[in-house]
Amino acid sequence: MGKLREPLDSHNCGLPAALEVMGERWSFMILRAAFNGLHHFEEFLGALGIARNILSNRLARLVEHGIMKREPLPDDRRKIEYRLTEKGLDLLPAMLALRQWGEKYGEGVPSNPVLCDSRDGVPIAAIGIRAHDGRALGPKDLEWRDRSDVGVTEKGDDSLKRPVLNVLR
Amino acid sequence: MGKLREPLDSHNCGLPAALEVMGERWSFMILRAAFNGLHHFEEFLGALGIARNILSNRLARLVEHGIMKREPLPDDRRKIEYRLTEKGLDLLPAMLALRQWGEKYGEGVPSNPVLCDSRDGVPIAAIGIRAHDGRALGPKDLEWRDRSDVGVTEKGDDSLKRPVLNVLR
DNA sequence: CGATTTGCGTTGCGAATTGCTACTTACCAA
DNA sequence: TTGGTAAGTAGCAATTCGCAACGCAAATCG
């Protein structure tokens, strides 16, 4: 039957790579705190209910993977500033998508604060899937295609195309 | 800028709610497998390198939280079909955002298969943050605002003051 | 029919991870 | 010097993970 059954390991998917760090407990919560303006060990410690050794471990791991950077402050050399790197900032869409999902299905938890367009102060749109030209796409507008088949044929060989909706039913 | 320091617990953020299930190990990988068309216990078991008891536990938990549904097949009552629910399908944007991030910063892992617009077969756009009207936003176009401040006109512009809850989808 | 295989799940146990609490080291301030 | 703060470590209990073996009902085979 289906020829398109893939190994699912990290050789053909960025998801395992992403989860290597962000899949660990507290990673996303630490990141959220960082996005909300926290920068110091004791701040994270107070805001999340995390144990010291775990926080220490996670921060080291996030730094190690280039998601946060660690630099001692010159004016008080006890203090260490943890800041998001570019790589860390790039996780914002994933984090917001997760948060919006949790908010949609959670027990009436209206998230706060809310991320807004600074131009007009209006909250951002829901994170969603869009076509290359920006059109919003729903589950029925989507299909998995083999990478080698992408762009070359438009309506030629459909043998490698799979509708996403067969997942639903 | 100093006023916006929030408790970060699950009372004002959907992220902890989302992580309650999806933060556990293997949850995202199981979901990815489901999105790729796997439906049965032994299929998941073979595709991911997961232990039986863990898979059993995770599937039960995903079902328990309404992310997947479990139904025995009538033609072979040994077989159980695990399928994504609507709630599970709604995790696709978050999963894709994570995957794209992992792919961007991973060791040259071009993900396969690729999600495409079924209308023209072109791969979808990168998951990103957009304004309510669809404009793509960068990190510098964003600001956190208290929920009570959104919708009540800012900068004297009343044309956009309608309370935006779920603009898109 | 009886024997074997298949699909899904459970149990037991050692290993790894987490969490709690106390301790340490470096620094600043009086 | 004394006291307090910031970051990190150490020890130990509790939880979770992972592997292998076992259980069991439903299908399949001879």
TrEMBL record, chains A, B:
Entry's Gene Ontology molecular function annotations: DNA binding
Domain HTH hxlR-type, chain residue ranges per copy: 13-110
Keywords, sorted A to Z: DNA-binding, Transcription, Transcription regulation
Pfam family, one: HxlR
Keyword DNA-binding appears in the UniProt entry: yes
Entry keyword annotation includes Kinase: no
Name of the protein described by the UniProt record: HxlR family transcriptional regulator
